Amino acid sequence: MTTSTSRGSNSSFNGLLAVTISNDDDIDDDAVDPNDPFDITHTKNAPPEALKRWRQASLVLNASRRFRYTLDFKKDEERDQKKSMIRSHAQVIRAALLFRLAGERELVTSTGAVVSPTPVADEYAVGLEQLVSMTKNQSPSALQQYGGASLLHPVIGLSKLLQSDPDKGIRGDDADLLKRKNAFGTNTYPRKKGRSFSRFLWEAWQDLTLIILIIAAVVSLILGIKTEGLEQGWYDGGSIFFAVILVIVVTAVSDYRQSLQFQNLNAEKQNIKLEIIRGGRTIQISIFDIVVGDVVPLKIGDQVPADGVLITGHSLAIDESSMTGESKIIHKDQKAPFLMSGCKVADGVGSMLVTGVGINTEWGLLMASISEDTGEETPLQVRLNGVATFIGIVGLTVAVSVLAVLLGRYFSGHTKDLDGKVQFVAGVTGISEVVDGVIKIFTIAVTIVVVAVPEGLPLAVTLTDKTGTLTLNQMTVVEAYVGRKKLNPPDDLTKLHPEVLSLINEGIAHNTTGNVFLPKRSPCISAKQHVKMHVWITEEDSGNDAFIQFNQDGGEVEVSGSPTEKAILSWTVKLGMNFELLRSNSTILHVFPFNSEKKRGGVAVKLTDSAVHIHWKGAAEIVLETCTQYLDSGGHLKSIEEEKVFFKNAIEEMAAQSLRCVAIAYRSYDLAKIPSDEDELDQWALPEHELVLLAIVGIKINLLVYSLSSNYINLNLQDPCRPGVKDAVKVCTEAGVKVRMVTGDNLQTAKAIALECGILMSNEDAVEPNIIEGKTFRELSEKEREQIANKITVMGRSSPTDKLLLVQALRKGGEVVAVTGDGTNDAPALHEADIGLSMGIQGTEVAKESSDIIILDDNFASVVKVVRWGRSVYANIQKFIQFQLTVNVAALVINVVAAISSGDVPLNAVQLLWVNLIMDTLGALALATEPPTDSLMNRSPVGRREPLITNVMWRNLTVQALYQVAVLLVLNFGGESILRNDQDSRTHTIQVKNTLIFNAFVFCQIFNEFNARKPDEMNVFRGVTKNRLFMGIVGMTFVLQIIIIEFLGKFTTTVRLDWKLWLASLCIGIFSWPLAIAGKFIPVPKTPLSRTFMRSIRRLRKSRAVE
């Protein structure tokens, strides 16, 4: 049986890159409030109590609506409950689900067994229900029963019943796959349908303030029809009702669009690509295409794709916490061979026979019962909700004040209508008129709350592994030393003794998790055959576990595995290795899977003559230290002590060329000393000393793959960095983001790649502590690590612990740290970092789950895109906050002053709802969708505690708000005298004045949206035409405002304006542009106002505490 390479083993050679985004050293303790519930700097590791604390921090209306974009603890609890229920009642739940699906698919369900449209039960000697029961109960006796005569390895017997082969898998042709899907089902499950648009309408309607407005609208509608008749009386209530419905629909559309985006992201995340063995070939398929009978290799970090039984395993450990809820690692062997779908491979390697897929597994039942959530919340989300909560409280306070003032003036007889008549006279005014008047006042107060609460604010939000991230991850052996002789080309057979060649091929064939597939029609490729071959790597195969195909006379040799394994296997194939023959003529006794700590892996092999060879392969300098002898190219065994300097120099020379250096060694061992008991054999440590060095190879990471001529690769060594990486590193550096490379390669290789990629600028920079070995860093005290962490640029020969220690040291120093990685050993650092970025192609499932962002193309240049988009999102949020606060301040001040002074407000409920629509949803869409620009990378990074509202924003919004308040108050109190003429009545003049105030206010917001685009730039129009959504929203708002004023006056209580007043409104709005330019000449202090204020408060508290 063959297995494919482990992604975990691949990452042991590679590393991870830490990106320092910002530093908060300038923030002193006086500026930080430890009691601030919204100051959660790292929500990934925050306890649930801390995340719940900010939700309960203050009075918040409509908490379910305000916090709808954050983590839902209730859903998490429901998920755990469903998980427990499925574990206990899997068979009942499965039967119910099958019954439902049978009805949907017109299948017949009888006694729990599904009869497919094409009966195929007789095709297999074991049925679906038997397999489900065996796996559910994890019954060894049932497995033994199906195993027949193969009592020692019952899975062999079971595989025969399923018409599969433990080594070669199923046939895998279309007919075979269809038959298996009909008999045992597919590895899919009925996805829980996403929420429909009507559901989002229902949720948007749950806003308490909107419900109050609807009730007020209904009452107003009834009273209006009663007092004024149907023809005229429905306008007030109907207009409010229509405005509320419009707000609900727009909100629901926005939420629904975001939900669809999440569904697409989840579908991409769930479509895991993995390797299986079919017909003896290792192929890559989607997890949804797995069928019963498939043979699946398992590697560190993989997700178990289906229920199954272990075929072979070496140190195989499974994390079953995703199903059992217990964070306990379970070791799998022949005594505990059952594997559950959805679990993760924590350690070791192995292979499994699939026995259950889809809803016939507990994982499938769970996935069919739950829906994906939006994931973890971020510190930014918490802070945004803090800002939204604060603004909402201010709005609520203002609304209550306005309500009290208006009610007081109304019942005291100080409120007059447009004709100057007192609206309430005790004992004279009818009850219906009083109710109508109170409802109008109450509606205005509630509308102020609606306007003040920033619904659009949450809407506005919606380190690197060197191998495969900085490099193309396409590798070839380009240098090889056998003994003291350098092979040139590296696969030159004429310089190798047959015994040395045999041992090299034997070691590579067995000590690998890769695979070589050779069709019977094609003879093994020998280096003695002078044939013309070509090698290529397709785009979809260019990541981890890619394939190389050597074509020869119509036949093909397929080499699969990690890039490192693939390179070494391809090299030995050209040396004449017959992979299948070597594997079939020997027995693997014990395997030590590649270990990222020891950076090597080994295998014990028993040959046909009962001789035992132990083969090791790994980091060249580490394996070299365990060798006492070496075989020269002539097959002579010699002491290595006198030649170690030569081999070390050879390794350093290859490393200086950015070559990955791998050593291959072996030793003989006495069969009698190997434990015969299976349990003892599992615990047996492979002898790793007194080895014989066979070869040292240098692997190049190539950008281009050239044609093969004769028996060797004739290519020029290429720069190992991906195209654009050097430029990307330069952009990051200029943006204030320091790039650090942390790798398992030796220091010389790491240094060479860092120089090529621009992480190190020159050889002069390549001195300690700029470059450091992981062991050296690890041995420092915690305080010493914190002191030098910020100076480290390259760390070589690092272990997972070193990566984690570096991230922790950087974060303790106040840095905001991003980490990229692909392997399981990167998971702790990815989880600890502020931002974890995993690789979408070669990343293990464990790494992806520990990360915050998945880079789909595994390219470091994409990290720059992440930084650019991250800064863009943050900048857009600030733009929206500035815009919204300006509207809030102006609208609230205008209504409060007018209410106190005259007992009436110039902006009524319908007008305020229209302003709310412009400000919240449309404003968020216009400003929060501004595309990223290159200028964002010229800004300094933002610290984790930097205030969202900067001094520049305070200046801008203060200037605009003061201007708007001043103009509108002048119009409110002086407009009647300005607009009065002899032809119009006083009532009409007041209506024109209020309409002009409303129109000018809306125009101010339209033009201020342009100012909000560039808070710190003079030219606010740069790039505006490229944002079609922004231009469309502004244009639509302008047109709708004209329609409202000219044609919908009865609904909005407005009148038509002549061209002079339209021109006046336009001029009032346009004047905000030159005003914004003038305002930007006003200097602002560097220290944020919020920090200065908090520092003063904290010091005042301290002084009082001392007294």
What does this structure look like?
By secondary structure, the protein is of the alpha+beta class. Helix content is 48%, strand content 16%. Strands 11, 12, 16, 17, 18, 19, 20, 21 and 22 form a nine-stranded mixed sheet that branches. A hairpin with a 5-residue loop joins β19 and β20. α15 packs parallel to α32 and α33 runs antiparallel to α36. The termini are far apart. The N terminus is likely disordered.
Low-confidence stretches: 1-15, 25-29, 105-121, 464-472, 521-554, 702-720
The biggest sheet, with number of strands, parallel, antiparallel or mixed sense and barrel status, is: 9 strands, mixed
Range of helix content: 40-55%
Structural class: alpha+beta
Overall outline = elongated
Rg (CA only): 36 Å
Count of individual beta strands: 30
- Report how far apart the termini are: 80 Å
How many helix segments?
A: 40
Strand content: 15-25%
Give the integer mean of the pLDDT values.
77
What's the topology here?
Blueprint: H1 7-13, E1 15-23, H2 48-55, H3 63-66, H4 73-105, E2 108-110, E3 113-115, H5 128-137, H6 140-147, H7 154-161, H8 174-184, H9 197-205, H10 208-228, H11 230-233, H12 235-270, E4 273-278, E5 281-286, E6 295-298, E7 307-319, H13 321-324, E8 329-331, E9 338-339, E10 344-356, H14 362-369, H15 379-411, H16 431-452, H17 456-459, H18 466-470, E11 475-482, E12 485-487, H19 498-510, E13 515-517, E14 546-552, E15 555-561, H20 563-574, H21 579-584, E16 587-595, E17 600-606, E18 612-619, H22 620-625, E19 627-631, E20 637-639, H23 644-656, E21 660-669, H24 678-683, E22 691-701, E23 708-709, E24 712-713, H25 725-734, E25 738-743, H26 747-757, E26 771-773, H27 774-778, H28 782-789, E27 794-796, H29 800-812, E28 815-821, H30 827-832, E29 835-839, H31 845-850, E30 853-855, H32 861-902, H33 909-928, H34 951-979, H35 986-1013, H36 1028-1047, H37 1049-1052, H38 1059-1070, H39 1072-1079, H40 1089-1106
Helix pairs in contact: 4-14, 6-7, 9-12, 10-12, 10-16, 12-33, 15-16, 15-32, 16-33, 19-20, 23-26, 25-32, 28-29, 32-33, 32-34, 32-35, 33-35, 33-36, 34-35, 34-39, 35-36, 35-38
